[in-house]
Amino acid sequence: MGENSMKFRGGRRPHLLYVRSTRSYNIDRMGGLIPQDWRYSALDIYELETRDLAEVDVLFVSGMHDQIFMKSIEPKLVAYLASGGHFLINGHIILPWLPCLSEFKTVSPRPFTNWMIRPAKPGGYFGRMDFENFHRHEGILGQYSRGYTALPRGGQCLCMIGGPTADGTIHEGPVDWVWRMPGGGKVFMHNGDHIEQFSSDPRHQPNLLHDILKALVFSDEPPEAKVDAGDDGITSVLLGATP
Fold first, then answer.
1. Which of 2, 21, 41, 226 counts the most CB atoms within 10 A of its CB?
2. CA nearest 46: which of 73, 24, 27?
3. What is the mean pLDDT of residues 125-131?
4. Which is higher by pLDDT, 150 or 139?
5. Is omega for the bond preceding 111 within 30 degrees of 0, making it cis?
6. What percent of the chain shows pLDDT beyond 70?
7. Could you tell me how far CA 61 lies from the centroid of its own chain?
């Protein structure tokens, strides 16, 4: 199915809703970073409690979001995902507010190469990126992310972070991953503050944010996660994170 023939929740164009917080990066610039043939709107995070999400294709969550508040409206957010809506989430998860999320884990900063991002199964999300350069902000490692969260069962690990520790063991994990709810939408998780500050200026080609949004809405990556047998299969697969 071609992009032009697809039906979107937001009408004839995909609709991205940006969830702002008081410390959001480039809070007034976000609208200029998304594809210009998309529909864009923004709202304060606390307005999510009453906002109708039926016409939202992608809910973009800032890295500085209030996780306690998001947890308080978890049933609404799970219902949005189950209905086919997608999440693009930034940040260090301390209080998981979706069943597929888990707590953030840091990796050792020594050697410094542990903070270098490398591809796992980048697919359409990161497949055009030059990994030697895209994750450096002003030439500095560690600003992209300094850790990871567990990959939900059935998810696709896009990028890895980490490496050897002082005792010789390897501590690494998925810094970016995407997971599809059975019968529902996808969750893209970036375990850092602001993925949109990396290789995502409208003048950048390839453009990371555009590639992520296109893969999130238009691609079949990843396939739906398999639901475990049982009375509460969807919950069990949501909680079935891999270590």
1. 21
2. 73
3. 96
4. 150
5. yes
6. 88
7. 8
Structure tokens at 135: 């994750």
Among 136, 127, 140, CA closest to 207: 127
Helix locations, 62-154, DSSP H: 67-72, 74-82, 123-126
Type of residue numbered 20 = R
Q: Are 160 and 173 in contact (CB under 8 A)?
A: yes
User: Which contacts qualify for 111-114: CB closer than 8 Å, 24 or more apart?
Assistant: 111/163, 111/164, 112/141, 112/142, 113/163, 114/161, 114/162, 114/163, 114/164, 114/172
Q: Average pLDDT, whole number, for the chain?
A: 89
CB 100 within 8 Å of CB 238: yes
The number of angstroms, rounded, from the C-alpha of 52 to the middle of its chain's C-alpha atoms is 21
Mean predicted confidence (pLDDT) in 63-68? 93
Q: Provide the residue type at 105 as one letter.
A: K
- Across the strands, what pairs with 137? 140
Count of CB atoms situated within 10 Å of the CB of 47: 11
The secondary structure of residue 31, as a DSSP letter, is G
Which residue do the tokens 């890295």 mark? 63
| DSSP string covering 98-117 | STT----EE---SSGGGG--
Region for residue 120 given its phi and psi (left: phi exceeds 0; alpha: psi -120 to 50; beta: otherwise): alpha
- Within 8 A by CB and 6+ apart from 190, the residues are 63, 88, 89, 90, 91, 145, 175, 176
pTM: predicted TM-score of the whole model, two decimal places: 0.91
